[in-house]
Amino acid sequence: MTNQRLKDLEDNIAKDEELLKDFEDELRYETYPKLIRKYLKDIERQKESITCYKSELAELLKELAAEASAQIQLQKVENQLGELQQLNDKIDRQSTRLNSSHVKRCRMPSSA
After folding, report:
1. 20 in a domain, yes or no?
2. What is the domain extent for residue 47?
3. d(CA 100, CA 22)
4. Radius of gyration (C-alpha) of the chain in whole angstroms
């Protein structure tokens, strides 16, 4: 879903920039005042639209970066947990080995 939204935003920005360029080209050659005002309004509207899309894109990228950072931190914690578990297993094996090699001796009851 997020990847699709990213692609949509990038596509919308590209389309709006192309349309902005078209309006600017038309304005450059226009001499009729009424059409000049129309193109100026259209250009302003396109610039606002592009700004909104870019702002939303920046926010989405920021969220994705935060999610990626959290994912990396989680992976580090999971790796450390795995290492601790391996260390714990090793200690348990050593402890078991020491306990099984220790011979129990029966003591003679002391006579009083």
Report:
1. yes
2. 2-94
3. 85
4. 35
Q: Please state, in angstroms and rounded to a whole number, the distance separating the CA atoms of residues 38 and 50.
A: 18
Geometric angle at alpha carbon 41, from 39 and 18, rounded to 5°:
60
Amino acid at 47: K
- Residue 65 domain flag: yes
Say how many CA atoms lie within 13 Å of 24 toward its Cβ.
9
Query: Quick one: pLDDT at residue 106?
Result: 61
Residue 105 in domain: no
Q: How far apart are CA 27 and CA 45, in angstroms?
A: 14
Residues contacting 60, CB < 8 A, separation 6+: 2, 5, 6, 9
Residue 44 within any structural domain of the chain: yes
pLDDT in tens, the chain (112 residues): 788 999 999 999 999 999 999 999 999 999 999 999 999 999 999 999 999 999 999 999 999 899 888 888 889 888 888 888 888 888 877 776 666 655 556 666 666 5
pLDDT attached to residue 7 = 94
The CATH number given to whatever domain includes residue 34 is 1.10.287
